[in-house]
Amino acid sequence: VYSRSCAACHGRDGRGDAAAAAELDPWPRDFVTGKYRVRSTHSGEPPRRADVEGVVRRGLPGTTMPAFGGLLSEERIADVVTFILGVGPRRPIGREPEALRIPEFPDAQPADLADGRAVYLVLGCWKCHGLNGGGRGPSAKGLRSDEGPRLMPRDFRYEPFKSGRSPATVARAALSGFIGTPMPSRAEIMVIPREAIDAYEESIPAHVRSQLVTFRSTAPSAAELATMDDDAWEALRDENLVALAHYVLSLDRRHGFFYRVFRQRPESEGRPPRLEESTRE
Questions:
Q1: Fewest beta carbons less than 10 Å away: which of 8, 86, 110, 151?
Q2: pLDDT band (50, 70, 90) for residue 273
Q3: Residue 274 in this model has a pLDDT that exceeds 80
Q4: Alpha carbon 267 to chain centroid distance?
Q5: Residue 175 and residue 39: Cα distance in Å, rounded?
Q6: Distances from the Cα of 82 to the Cαs of 2, 10, 69, 88, 120, in angstroms?
Q7: What is d(CA 205, CA 32) in angstroms, rounded to the nearest whole number?
Q8: What is the pLDDT of residues 136-159, one digit of tens each?
Q9: φ and ψ at residue 109, rounded to 5 degrees
Q10: Looking at residue 48, what is its pLDDT?
Q11: Is the pLDDT of residue 262 over 90?
Q12: Separation CA 245–CA 117 (nearest Å)
C-alpha cells in the first residue's frame, strides 16, 4: 500500500526524499526521524497511532497531502500506518503515548474573545502570527524548520489549518506545539500570573496595551497561584485555553460573497507561495 500510494512523495524508505518532494510545499514528512507535527500528545512525545491514521484518512488541508479515506479501506489504512510507524524511532510495544486532555468548548461569548485576545498578546503569539493574525509579526521573517527550509507562521485569517478549524485543534496545537518548527508548546505557561502580565506589558505595542486591563484585573497573583491545588490550576488553564482557541478562530476572514465564489473549497487547496520565498512548514 505504501509503495503504491505514498512512496512517490515520501520516498521508498520513508525519508521524504522522493523525486517529487522538492516541488512540494510543504515538504513531505520524513517518517524515519519521527518528527510528527499533527499530534494529540504532549510536547516532545511521538504521535498516537490514531493521529497518524487520522492524517492518512482526512489528509492535511493547505498541503498536497490528500485524503485517502475514500480510496483505502480501514484495513489498508491500518496496514500502511503500521509500516510508517515501523520505519521511525522504536515505540514501546503495547503502549501508546498519553493523549492531551482537551477541555469542552462552549459557544464563544464576547468576554471570551476579549480574554483570548489578552492571552494571545501576553503569550507572544502576535510576535510571529501578527497583531491581526496575518502571519507577519516582527519575528516571522527568517524562521526555519529543523530540516532547513524557511517557513512562515500560519495566517489565521485566510489559510487552512492542517488539522481543520475547530477549537479543539487550535487547543491541541497550543498545548503540543509543532515539533521541528519554532512553534513551541504553551502548556506550561497557559496560566498567567498578574506579575507576568506587568513584566511583559512593555514589550507589547503601546496602542494595544489597553486590551490587557480587564484580563489583568482578574488574573491571580503569583502568591495566589502558589496556593492553588491541581484542580484549580487546571481549571484556570482550561479557561485561558478555551478563550485563546475561540479568539484565534474569530480571526477567520474567509467569509463574504467573493471569497465563497472564487475559493469554494479553501480547506482542500495547497498552500500558495508567498513573495517567491520558500514557505515550507
A1: 110
A2: very low
A3: no
A4: 15
A5: 10
A6: 10, 15, 16, 10, 38
A7: 42
A8: 999 999 898 887 777 889 999 988
A9: -110, 160
A10: 96
A11: no
A12: 10
Name the percent of the chain lying above pLDDT 70: 91
Q: Which of 52, 99, 76 is nearest to 4 (CA)?
A: 76
Helices (H) and strands (E) in the chain, counts: 12, 0
Question: Could you tell me the three cell numbers for 208?
Answer: 494595544
Q: Which residue has the higher pLDDT, 189 or 92?
A: 189
Q: How far is CA 138 from the centre of its chain?
A: 19
Q: What is the DSSP string of 144-176?
A: B-TTS-B-----TTTSPPTT-SSHHHHHHHHHH
> What is the rounded distance in angstroms from the CA atom of residue 186 to the CA atom of residue 178?
11
Pull the grid cell for residue 250: 474569530
Its sign, for the CA torsion 22, 28, 32, 34, is positive
Name the β-bridge partners of 62. 270
- How many C-beta neighbours within 10 Å does residue 101 have? 10
Q: What is the pTM of this model?
A: 0.89
Q: Do the beta carbons of residue 150 and residue 278 sit within 8 Å?
A: yes
Decide: 135 and 155 in contact? Cβ < 8 Å: yes
SS3 (DSSP) at 46? coil
Count other Cβ atoms within 10 Å, centred on residue 40. 21
**Contacts for 126 with CB less than 8 Å, ≥ 6 apart:** 120, 137, 204
Q: Averaged over 20-39, what is the pLDDT?
A: 89
AA letter at 2:
Y
C-alpha dist (Å) from residue 142 to 121, 125, 128, 170, 174: 21, 16, 11, 24, 21
- The distance from CA 175 to its chain's CA centroid, rounded to whole angstroms, is 9
